[in-house]
Write a structure and sequence with these properties.
six-stranded mixed beta sheet; 19 strands; Deoxyribonuclease I, Chain A; globular; alpha+beta; 350 residues; seven-stranded mixed beta sheet
């Protein structure tokens, strides 16, 4: 009995000492996020785009007031993503469904974000709807070193006419002195049906993989985040067969890709809804070096869907769906038809 008590006491002390040792460890944490801003268009008709078909331009009255509120709503969400854990807005956030750089300037100059001094990376895409992707970053935390836009060329099988869509944005830079790479995408939609439009997303995935491969050919240990609205779920062919993304960390090889969103999708979680079914089109995938357990540099900690209560529709036929900005030809004072997604990266501070 004495021996048993001694063993129990010893075990308790070891646990306590280990807990105290863990408590002494301090970590730095940042949020890297993605958000589809749902038709963030300005109120000016651009003759070089089909922006007159945007929900903003289709409004018959109060466009300026609606635009200002839309910008304010987008800034509110961005300011909130990850704040509860990091006590900061995202260090880096990829965005989609924006018309131009100017709308992003309005967002980052909103009073909720202005003090964070966000920088912007944006290139114009040839998308037929006139929408682009972009990247926002806190200048004190992240320094872009190299930026490029990668064209996705898709042609219709019967006519060989080009189907113009969004370019993919690559931003390489240093997060508090550490080199990382972020690819921001908005892959072709499921217009015309999932099966019929699938080859377009396969093509987008192949482009994404080429960008990743090119980075890894220079540095096999490159820390890469590929973020976006992929218009595919984590289990679709574009993710599993082209990117070869893995659900489990232990299955990820040196140049492999981990998709933390797949486990969420398996649980029925989603970032957008259609016909009473949830999809997880918004995702953040990462490469193997972000999974190492040595926290002397930034590593992946956790992923999530930012589905706060105020982002959920409370009534009507879309009850329970993401509270979108535009519906039935008008402005709802909502946010987006997609929830944002995010990952936390952490680093031990000595």
């Amino acid at each position: 009995m004495r021996t048993l008590k001694f063993l129990i006491t010893t075990l308790f002390l070891l646990i306590l000492l280990n807990a105290n040792a863990q408590e002494k460890k301090k970590f730095k944490i940042h949020t890297i996020a993605f958000y589809n801003l749902e038709n963030l268009f300005d109120t000016i008709n651009d003759p070089n785009k089909f922006d007159e078909r945007s929900p903003m331009m289709e409004l018959k009255a109060n466009r300026t007031e609606v635009y200002k509120q839309k910008v304010r709503n987008m800034a509110r969400v961005i300011a909130d993503i990850g704040y509860e854990v990091t006590h900061n807005t995202p260090a880096i956030i990829g965005v989609s469904e924006i018309e131009n750089r100017e709308v992003l300037e309005d967002v980052v100059n909103d009073p909720l974000l202005l003090h964070k001094d966000y920088g912007i990376v944006h290139f114009h895409s040839p998308d037929e709807r006139g929408i682009d992707v972009g990247l926002l970053y806190q200048k004190r935390l992240f320094t872009p070193i190299y930026t490029s836009s990668h064209e996705l060329k898709i042609y219709h099988d019967n006519t060989r006419k080009r189907d113009y869509t969004r370019d993919q944005l690559l931003v390489s830079g240093k997060l508090e002195g550490e080199m990382i790479h972020i690819i921001v995408s908005h892959w072709p939609s499921r217009s015309g049906g999932e099966a019929r439009s699938r080859p377009k997303r396969i093509a987008a995935a192949k482009l994404n993989k080429r960008i990743i491969d090119s980075l890894q050919s220079i540095d096999p240990y490159a820390k890469i985040f590929t973020v976006g609205d992929f218009n595919d779920d984590p289990t679709n062919a574009s993710m599993k067969e082209v990117l070869k993304a893995k659900k489990d960390k232990e299955d990820v090889g040196l140049k492999g890709i981990y998709n933390p969103m797949e486990a969420m999708a398996k649980k029925g979680l989603g970032s957008n809804a259609y016909r009473d079914a949830w999809s997880l089109f918004d995702q953040i995938l990462i490469t193997k070096p972000l999974l190492e357990k040595d926290y002397s540099s930034f590593r992946f900690y956790k992923a999530g869907i930012f589905g706060e209560n105020y982002l959920i529709n409370k009534k009507g036929r879309w009850k329970g769906y993401p509270f979108r900005s535009f519906a039935d030809g008008g402005f709802t004072n909502g946010f987006s038809d997609h929830f944002p997604v995010y990952v936390y990266v952490i680093k031990e501070v000595k």
